[in-house]
Amino acid sequence: CGGGFCVDFAVGGRRFRGVADTGSPFILVSTCAEGAQAGSCAAYCRAWGCTTPSAGEASGLEDTDEMFAAGSARVVWRRAGLGLGGVGLGNVTYGTMMEVESYGGNGGGAF
């Protein structure tokens, strides 16, 4: 996982792998603009998991622009069930990263 600690989790029944970032208050998952089966997206989505902006339920929160050390992303906030280690943890609000500007590196989702 590139020197970080990664965790497998599910949001809304979709499986993801992401960096367990203890400094982040969010659960973030990725989309791929080209579609999960296209070119570079296919490998990315197999490794980290991908979703769509319409997955889950509306959270009632406005979209936001989030800044990170490795880039920035437009985030759509949604709600769905969270699973960790095969255990359902109930519904949570999570962010679906849309337009991402990377400054280098790739950690998939963040938990």
Descriptive report:
The protein is mainly beta. The protein is 9% helix and 49% strand. It has one helix and eight strands, in the order E-E-E-H-E-E-E-E-E. It has one helix spanning 39-48; strands spanning 6-11, 14-19, 28-30, 57-58, 64-68, 71-84, 87-102, 109-110. Strands 1, 2, 3, 4, 5, 6, 7 and 8 form an eight-stranded mixed sheet that branches. Strand 5 and strand 6 (71-84) form a beta hairpin. The two termini are 14 Å apart.
Number of strands: 8
Radius of gyration: 13 Å
Task: Report the structural category.
Answer: mainly beta
Average pLDDT score? 81
Task: Explain briefly what this protein structure is.
This protein has one helix spanning 39-48, and strands spanning 6-11, 14-19, 28-30, 57-58, 64-68, 71-84, 87-102, 109-110. With 111 residues, the chain is mainly beta.
Give the helix/strand layout.
Layout: E1 6-11, E2 14-19, E3 28-30, H1 39-48, E4 57-58, E5 64-68, E6 71-84, E7 87-102, E8 109-110
Parallel strand pairs: 2-8, 3-7
Antiparallel strand pairs: 1-2, 1-6, 4-6, 5-6, 6-7
Keywords:
mainly beta
